[in-house]
Every structure is written in C-alpha cells, then in structure tokens.
Specification:
The protein is of the alpha/beta class. 42% of the residues lie in helices and 10% in strands. α14 links the parallel β5 and β6. The two termini are 18 Å apart. This is Malic enzyme.
C-alpha cells in the first residue's frame, strides 16, 4: 500500500498524543487533536452505530454517511440511498430557514437542528453568522425566553432549583460530560431588557454557549448551560400553566446567597480550578455581589458588567480615529447606572488611568451617569447604591437627559437604561450642536428597548453621528451617503475572551485582561470600516477577531502569572487558530 495512503487512513488513537486546549483534562478519545483526514471513533458510552448513531447529535451526519460508513455502522436501510455532502446539506437548510417569516420559528428550527446534528448546526452558524446571529442571540432569543415554556421540547442544560439544596454536587454529576471548560449560568431575574423570566431564562446560557463554540472555538462538549431556579416574582409566569420552573416567589437574602455558595463550591469541586463560570443576566444587586465575592477565589466573569464594558471600550478607542484626541480628552455621559453602565464606566476610567498615569479617581471625573432620578451628583451621595457612589461628582442637580447633555457637553452618550426611545430628537440635536461627530451608543436590548434607532441618530444629526447599538439595525442612506451602523455586541468579546482563558489555563480574571481584549478588538477596525462610519469590524471575520482577542487575553494571563498551561506558545494567535473547534464532518472507521 502507498505510504501516503497509509498515513491518511491512520487512526488518531494510534498516534502519539498532542497538546490541545483541554483545560488540563486529557482528550482520551483523540477526537479534538485529529485532523479532518484522520479517522476517529464515534464514542458514546459504547461505540455508537445503527439507529443510535443517527440519534446521537455529536456524531450524526444525516445523508453525508459514506457507503463504507453505512456498511460498517449498520446504517443500511435506515437512510435514503442518496449521499449528500455537508455543504449541500447546509445549502438546503439555509433555504428552508429563509422560508420562515417569523424569527421565532427560525430559532426553534435551529435549536431542533442542534439537537439532531451538532456539527451541521455549527457549520450553518459559522458560515452565516451575520444572518443567524440575531436568531440565536438578541433580539430573537429574548422572545424565545418569554415563550420558553411553550416551545420547550428537550432539556439543553442543567436546571438547579431550590429542591436540590444540599445536593448540587450530585446534580452536576448527572451531566454526562466531565471535561467542562465553560459554564454560563443565570438565575433569570433580569433577562435582557425583559425583566424576571425565572426558569425560562435558560435560553440565554444556551445561546451564549452556542456562540462560545461558533465564534470562539470552544468545543460544544466542554460547554455547560445552567439555570439556577430560586423562583420568580413574575406573576404572569406563576399563573401560566406551561411555566417550567418553581411556582414560588424568589428566594432572597441569606437563603439565596447560601444556595449560590453551595453551587460555586460544587462547581470547583467537580470541574476544578480552571473552569470558567460566566454569570449572565443576574439582577444588579446580586451581580455585583457575586462578582466581588467569587472573583478572588474562582475563575468568574460577568458578561453584563465586564463583557459589555470591554466591547464598549473597544468602540470608544476605535472611535477616536473619527473623533480625534485621546480618551482623556473627552467627556462621556451614561444614561443608565446599572451593572452595565457602571461596569463600562469603570473600565473606561481604568483605561484612561493606565494611558495617562493618573489615579482612577481622577479619571472618573471625565465620566458622568444619569439614573432614573437624574444626574448622579454629590448632593445625592447618601441615598445612592454602593456601585453608583464613585460617580457622584460636584454639580447642580439635573433631572432630565436633555438638560444634562446641555450642561455636561459630552462627546458621547451611552445608553444602558433598558428604556426605549429615550434618545429623543432634541437630545440628538443637542449632541450634534456640541460635537462635529457626536458618538451615539444606544446599547439596550432587545431592539424595542434601544434608546434610539440608527435612522433617527443619522437623520437628527444630519448624517454626522457615529452610531452603535446593542441590537442590529439596517444600513441608512442619508444625503446620498450610505451609513453602516455598528453593533456593540458582547459577542465580539466574550467568546474570544473565554477561549483565551481556557487556552492559557487561567485561574483568575483580571481587569488588565479586559483592557487587552478591548485593544485587540479595536485593532481589527480598518480604514475601510472607518470610511463607512463603523467603529467595530464586520461579524463575518469574527473567528479571526476572536483568535486575536484570545491571544491578547492569554498573553496577559501569562504576564500576570495566572496561566497554568506551560510553556507559553511562541505564537499565540496561530496557537488559538489551531485549537479552535471546526464543525466539518469527520470520517468514521
């Protein structure tokens, strides 16, 4: 036999093991260090074959099974005779998806695909990311969470309720995968801008982890979505006969924090020091408390606070090419002082402090926040929540956003309020009268909660606004010029950020890593993008962007001494690209 053919057909388990990104756990099946032309074994608890193989989403290839695979794995008669390669399957499914007019129907169809053919699901998502991102994530995932009880068919993660108090470790062991690298967990209390959706918030961890794989390259089997069910205060859900969660009011105080403490200890005991726990859509008061409490003992990350902050900072750094000057030269005004607003503000202050060698307290003076009661000023300090107090500056009280803009004269207004249509015509016009290129960031999700639309921002500023939003908006033509709105979506940051932590075997998250991620993202914006008014690169390049972010984050982890995967790879970008999960079908022996 030809030596080349012998090498090509060599099974991966017969080869010497190679180093891969496994968070410290050996890849015993060899699946993830196999190249696409090497043979792998479709393991479950036994070798999967026949009807069971077609029902195993990790290994099912549908009509793509070859003639030989159909013989070897007892598939004859279980499939039609045609052989359809993955590319043709993808084309057929995309045509089918595009026939749906209702986005929620597309969401349901995609989730069903993930449950029957994992690799084809990720192939679709990676190759059509700009089209499908609004389906698997915001804004459609918000509607999916609202109706999760009605569309629920099969569990896609772990549900840990108060019924399991004292037994959380046992529940974690029920999950079939042992090599978990990333957990996304929510308690459902503040889902997007939609409020308390209780147990139905599971759509968020499921969607986020799909993006960890598609955009960041983390293996699907290493991802675990979890919902902590401590009840809900949503009366409509409690009365809904199809509600899937506990029918009781939310646990609070000591009962709540004791339950979360048991969860965090069980996670570390079961999965080790290097598993990343990403908090998602917790209410403000709990989000800050959990991040502060476990940030020094676990590898934790809050996407609403830290991820949003990093992506917005990247947009601000990139926008300096259009606005001129440095961050320290400009004043920033936030409309909304919750976990997102204060998290972004703090990271901006840290970036200004690092660049200008000024104390963070001094850097904060460039940043102003407005909450539901008006501008946050010293006169209100005694009544403010702890996370708002650092932003109370000396100024006369101002009760509304328009008067605040006129008084503060910011270069940028950043909306994190969750209240739609609050950047009014008067507010945008005031910004345009103060700045040659006003920066308008309407970040609240979903679309209905956006502070203004792209068309409104461009029209009311006479085409001079630099605009970014949390949810996607279509391009706008104004005065014969095409304006392409930027989307300040967390998806730019968290997949690459998390992958960088896994890649380095990091044991803690540090603010310097967030700054490193922001710098990497801003560095991907080209002159061509600036010419179209964009301050973020297009999503079509997201895997390349994620690789650069992962490399920057990993480099910072090594620099700070919190990386455990040694020695450090010489070229972290190439290493990141080589370690990314790819969804192409494998050949079975």
């Amino acid at each position: 036999m030809d030596s080349k053919m012998e090498k090509k057909s060599e099974a991966v388990l017969d080869m010497s093991p190679k180093s891969t990104v496994e968070g410290g756990v050996e890849d015993i099946y060899g699946e993830d260090c196999a190249t696409e032309d090497q043979l792998i074994t479709p393991w479950a608890f036994v070798v999967s074959s026949g009807y069971n193989l077609l029902r195993d989403p990790r290994y099912n290839k549908g009509l793509a099974f070859t003639e030989n695979e159909r013989d070897v794995h007892y598939l004859r008669g279980l499939l039609p005779p045609a052989i359809m390669p993955q590319e043709l399957q993808e084309k057929r499914l995309m045509q089918s998806l595009r026939r749906y007019e209702v986005p929620l129907n597309k969401y349901v169809a995609l989730m069903e695909l993930e449950e029957r053919n994992e690799r084809l699901f990720y192939k679709l998502l990676i190759d059509n990311v700009e089209e499908l991102l609004p389906i698997v994530y915001t804004p459609t995932v918000g509607e999916a969470c609202q109706k999760y009880g009605s569309i629920f068919k099969r569990s896609q993660g772990l549900y840990i309720s108060l019924k399991e108090k004292g037994r959380i470790l046992e529940v974690l062991k029920n999950w079939p995968e042992r090599k978990i690298q990333v957990i996304v967990v929510t308690d459902g209390e503040r889902i997007l801008g939609l409020g308390d959706l209780g147990c139905q918030g599971m759509g968020i961890p499921v969607g986020k982890l799909a993006l960890y794989t598609a955009l960041g390259g983390v293996r699907p089997s290493a991802c675990l979505p979890i919902t902590i069910d401590v009840g809900t205060n949503n009366e409509q859900l409690l009365e809904d006969e199809f509600y899937i969660g506990l029918r009781q009011k939310r646990a609070t105080g000591k009962e709540y924090y004791d339950f979360l403490d048991e969860f965090m200890k069980a996670v570390k005991q079961n999965y080790g020091e290097k598993v990343l726990v990403q908090y998602e859509d917790f209410a403000n008061h709990n989000a800050f408390e959990l991040l502060a409490k476990y940030g020094t003992t676990h590898l934790v990350f809050n996407d609403d606070i830290q991820g949003t902050a990093a992506v917005v900072l990247a947009g601000l750094v990139a926008s300096l090419k259009l606005l001129g000057g440095s961050l320290a030269d400009h004043t920033f005004l936030f409309f909304g002082a919750g976990e997102a607003g204060t998290g972004i503000a703090e990271l901006i202050a840290l970036a200004i402090s690092k660049k200008s060698n000024a104390p963070v307290e001094e850097a904060r003076k460039n940043i102003w926040l407005v909450d539901s009661k008006g501008l946050i000023v010293n006169a209100r300090k005694e009544s403010l929540q702890a996370h708002k107090k650092p932003w109370a500056h000396e100024h006369e009280p101002v009760n509304n956003l328009l008067d605040t803009v006129k008084a503060i004269k910011p270069a940028a207004i950043i909306g994190t309020s969750g209240v739609g249509q609050t950047f009014t015509k008067e507010v945008i016009e005031a910004m345009a009268s103060i700045n040659k290129r006003p920066l308008i960031m309407a970040l609240s999700n979903p679309t209905a909660q956006s502070e203004c639309t792209a068309e409104e921002a461009y029209t009311w500023s006479e085409g001079r606004a630099v605009f970014a939003s949390g949810s996607p908006f279509p391009s706008v033509e104004y005065n014969n010029k095409l304006h392409i709105p930027s989307q300040a979506n967390n998806c730019y940051i968290f997949p690459g950020f998390g992958f960088g932590l896994v890649m380095a075997g990091a044991i803690r998250v540090h603010n310097d890593m967030l700054l490193a991620a922001s710098e990497a993202l801003a560095g991907q914006v080209t002159e061509e993008h600036y010419g179209k008014g964009m301050i973020y690169p297009p999503f079509g390049n997201i895997r390349k962007i994620s690789a650069h972010i992962a490399a920057n984050v990993a480099a910072k982890a090594y620099e700070l001494g919190v990386a455990t995967r040694l020695p450090q790879p010489a070229d972290l970008v190439k290493y990141a690209e080589s370690c990314m999960y790819t969804p192409n079908y494998r050949s079975y022996r």
